[in-house]
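Human: You know discrete backbone vocabularies at least as well as I do. Show me how you would write down a chain together with its backbone fold. No explanation is needed for now; the record alone will do.

Assistant:
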Amino acid sequence: MTLSARVLNIEDKAKFNRFMETHPKGHVLQSWEWGEVKAVTGWKPIRVMVEDEKGSPVAAVSLLKRRLPAGMGAIFYSPRGPVIDAENLAAWDVLTQKVKELAHTNKVVFWKSDPDVDIDTELGTTWQKTLQAYGFKAVDKGEGFEGVQPRYVFRLDIHNDLETLLAACHQKTRYNIRLAAKKGVKIVRNPGREALPIFYKILVETATRDRFLIRPYSYFEGFYDNLKPAGQAELFMAYLDDEPISGTLAFKMGNKAWYIYGASSNKHRNYMPNYLIQWSMIEWAKENNCTMYDFRGVPGDVGKDHPLYGLVKFKRGFGGKYTCFIGEYDLVYRPFMNKIYSIAEPAYQKLVRVLIRYKKKLKGK
């Protein structure tokens, strides 16, 4: 079989997305639309596809290119990619050669990959061996949320019917789902774009309460305006009477769904809207023929003394499987510049954290 690789253009969008939807490792963060979301935040998407002699795709990747400061060059990042069979070495040969050519043209220092692969599986072992064989090196970013994408998640197999899935939830989780409904919490799926600023307002409230950073509102507009028309995103809002008290954003690609962002008001938290809205997203995923529901990031399998144990307990209560991915791998093209970057980037991140703490301290006065 003769394989070739090419850079795609807008006419290839539907073909690219079909491949992502049908491949077992296809991911919404590798979709054409996700590249458009990132394009307005300083990243340039470059889509590459490997095809056989009949033009049928066998592998693909969405590379996000970002320029580094001070003339250091650029980096490639493929979030949850590349999408390829780990054992198809012929496809790997063609794909890595094409990316190498693009890296040379764009003065890329390294290509970062963090594929959607469970480390505790035979496939995970195969992926690690293949990446290493092609020159990728594992990058240790520590526990939990330290990487570009969360390394630890809870995933729920939703092949079974809803009654069986509900029965598999923790007893307290089932109780809270029913409690929210009994107390009059109503979940509105697809409340319209006019609800997006309301969701964001609650998200700001959540971030302030729980002390985490969030993207500007324009970023969420990018989610909605790009992924929603493509059927890759949905907004959910929880109301008590007519008051919005909680909201979530979910993504979908093929037979997979992801809980991405959640927000809850400081009011009426004892009405347990987050449990009911999460269950509503699982119902939505089932209706859209999904077989996997991803609760996204947790800070590892932590104990009760961890400050984020409540988050772990909440997600675990729905019966999902604790999943650890193989993590980040870098393929370095320019070793000297990579060494400089490896020193400068942590220093920059440390400076950012110091400035954030300083700003919070000023606000507290």
Remarks:
- The longest strand covers residues 57-67.
- The chain has two domains: 4-149+325-364, 159-290.
